[in-house]
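Feature request disguised as a bug: please show the residue count (323) next to Folate-binding protein YgfZ in the output. Example input:
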Amino acid sequence: MHSVWQEWLGSQAPTEILKTGDVAPAAAGRFIPLSGFALLRASGEDAQNFLQSQLSSDIRLISSQSAQYSTYSNAKGRMQGSFLIWLYQGDYYLLLKADIADRVRQRLSMFILRSKVKLERVDAGWGLVGLISDEALSNHDATGLKVSATEREVRIQLDATSALLLFESPQPADLARLATQMRLADEAFWTLRDIRAGIGWVSAATYEAFVPQMANMEVIGAISFQKGCYPGQEIVARTQYLGKVKRRMYRVLASIALEPGQPLFGEETGEQAIGAVVESVALEGGTWEGLVVVQSAAWEEGVHYQSLQGPLLEKLELPYSVD
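Example output, currently without the count:
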């Protein structure tokens, strides 16, 4: 997060920041400065072709008005990163988890070779805010991942009630203006938003843990099965066409904190792990909500956290179907 925003946030009284256990008035939206994400920028005349050759989505479909989810995998099809990508002033911007940003940039840069592409981390020059409303955000198209931009501001509409807002060269006045319209909220609100939307981000804890379909990436449009080759493409295609995906990502409720990357177990497989935690967030009343990747068949006997003696997880609904 940009230092000037950190200073502004530090000046706010803790009681003014909504937590996930708080309930804001129905008409009040929430704005959430986000520090858990980073930005990569791919520029140069070969940027589109380079990204097309490395990522799982069809980069050619991205325009200045539309964004796209995507993934990056190793040769075995295991994800090393997941992204939200858009085009701004002729360059591609890739949003990803901050704790893997440098690692992913270095890995991708190995394959630039003689391509006319510059790949750099640029989040130090941007401010990122999540917007959530209990009612539809007005005056913005809520169909698909629509992008609108001005000289120093980019807005990505994720769904009817949530959007991402990015400020180039952010200023304290940006947050102060939002504070006159919405309530300042803790970043956990945004984590909960992604969990309930079924968006599972690759993080340091889940690096190379999952094939894209295990995290439902084809459901959210992050995989194209019509494009050419990219790292892991053979595994991704084989998983899609030659057999049922045995592990899927599910939304769950738990009685204790769920740590990303921690294993899950089922009665039939004994001490052999059947999945792992993707993300979680604390709710009021001492419960936790999260996303997990687990063998689909294991729900019949129950899914346990960390060991067979660990607490059972309760499966909740996602906004899309995976079974």
